[in-house]
Amino acid sequence: MAAGLIGAAQAAFTQALQLAAMISAAVAVGAGILAIALLRRVPMGSELEDKRGPESARALTGGRRC
User: pLDDT digits over 15-42, tens only?
Assistant: First the structure.
């Protein structure tokens, strides 16, 4: 009787752990896709300098050179 209960508990624990891992992986993939989608239109540093010029880029860094 005790061995059956321990086996059932181990199986339930393993199943719950696998489910939690799958949910965590899905959330991580979703967060990555969301980050890519949101950051797609953000200009990179060199593109920002090309549009505004080197003085504006320096002003954004607090006067320090990039």
Answer: 999 999 999 999 999 999 999 999 998 8
Q: For 27-37, b where at least 16 C-beta lie within 10 A, e where not — what string?
A: eeeeeeeeeee
Q: Which residue has the tokens 């540093």?
A: 45
Q: What is the pTM of this model?
A: 0.59
Q: Where are the domains of the chain?
A: 24-66
Instruction: Please return the burial class of 45, using the count of CB atoms within 10 Å of its CB with bins 0-12, 13-18 and 19+.
Output: exposed
End-to-end CA distance of the chain: 70
